[in-house]
Amino acid sequence: MDSAEDAASIEPSADVDERARLGAGVRVWHLAQVREHAEIGAGTTIGRGAYVGPGVRIGARCKLQNHALVYEPAVVGDGVFIGPAVVFTNDANPRAVNPDGSLQTGDDWTKVAVVVGDGAAIGARSVCVAPVRIGRWALVAAGAVVTRDVPDYALVAGVPARRIGWVGPRGVRLEAVGDGAFRCPVSGDRFTEADGLLAPG
Question: In terms of residue numbers, what domain contains 97?
């Protein structure tokens, strides 16, 4: 680990590879595993029993809750919430063996990524099936199965996940105010929808 580990807090039962890079103020809780070459940004918390795969990049000030599984080559932005028991997959065509019956190795399949934008939140026990991108400030409801890209600010739910509304940075569902405009009932911030996408303003 790099010198930033001096400011990190790692529980004795956690398994953090010495080649991982942990930013200042990172907390790694009991029984979590952080694999080689993973990068964890400053101020991020890795919950009990969570798994961070080799080379996974997780941004600053994220919360990876208990028993979440983030498989390589996932890329997670800053300020992302990953709920308890969330799974990020990495194999579009999973098989344990090749057609000849031999056990597959790393050379027998291609890893694909889940990519998460800044500020997004992934609800408890949801599954993100790679390859897929979750947009900035999007909210994936608990138990959803995400099989296609999620736009910025989208609220998605169900199996498979579909957009059921929009949310702002406060995480609250936006209110429609007419003519493609939406308003956050907490902050008053306004947003505009066009062509199935939402943007501030």
Answer: 3-167
End-to-end CA distance of the chain: 43
Assess if residue 174 is contained within a domain.
no
Per DSSP, 189 falls in state -
How many domains are there within the chain? 1
Residue 4 has pLDDT above 60, yes or no: no
Residues contacting 166, CB < 8 A, separation 6+: 153, 154, 155, 173, 174, 182, 191, 193, 198
Domain annotation covers residue 188: no
Cβ neighbour number for residue 12 with a 10 Å cutoff? 5
- C-alpha separations of 115 from 15, 70, 80, 99, 175 in Å: 24, 11, 11, 30, 28
Residue 175: C-alpha distances to residues 116, 147, 182, 190 (Å): 25, 26, 5, 9
For position 128, which CATH number holds?
A: 2.160.10.10
CA atoms within 13 A on the CB side of 24: 0
Whether residue 179 is contained in a domain is answered as: no
The residue type at 21: R
0.85 exceeded by the pTM?
Answer: yes
Residue 150 in domain: yes
State how far the alpha carbon of 134 is from the alpha carbons of 78, 122, 142, in Å.
13, 9, 15
Inter-residue contact 90 to 130 (CB < 8 Å): yes
Which residues does the annotation mark as catalytic? 67
For the segment 146-175, the average pLDDT, to the nearest whole number, is 98
